[in-house]
Amino acid sequence: MPTDASPFEIAAGFDNSTVLFMLTGAGMVVALLWAMWAAISAYKGWAKGRVDDNNFTLACLRVVLLLVMFIWIFTPGP
């Protein structure tokens, strides 16, 4: 056992960057699934004429902006 290992690394058997990577991946998967659901729902409403062009454009813009925010939040810093 290395003497400079944290108690988490000793007990878990892996370092905390692995946990961060797994949580980041899970967060991005959830964000992408939500974005696909929102985009497909908006498109289906637009294709059937239930959603007009302005609302469809705003929905797509919201999805893109939220994805950018999620990427910024979930991406680990240097």
Description:
- The protein has one domain.
- Helices cover 77% and strands 0% of the residues.
- It is built from three helices and no strands.
- Helix 2 packs antiparallel against helix 3.
- The two termini are 27 Å apart.
Short account of what is shown:
The protein is mainly α.
How far apart, in Å, are the first and last alpha carbons?
27 Å
Mean pLDDT over the residues: 87
- Domain module tally: 1
Proportion of beta-strand residues: under 5%
Relative helix content? over 70%
Q: Give the structural class.
A: mainly alpha
Radius of gyration: 20 Å
Oligomeric composition of the shown chains: single chain
Q: Please, how many helices?
A: 3
Q: What is the N-to-C order of secondary-structure elements (H for helix, E for strand)? A: HHH
For the secondary structure, the number of strands is 0
Largest sheet: none
Q: Segments where pLDDT lies below 50 for 5+ residues?
A: none
Shape: elongated
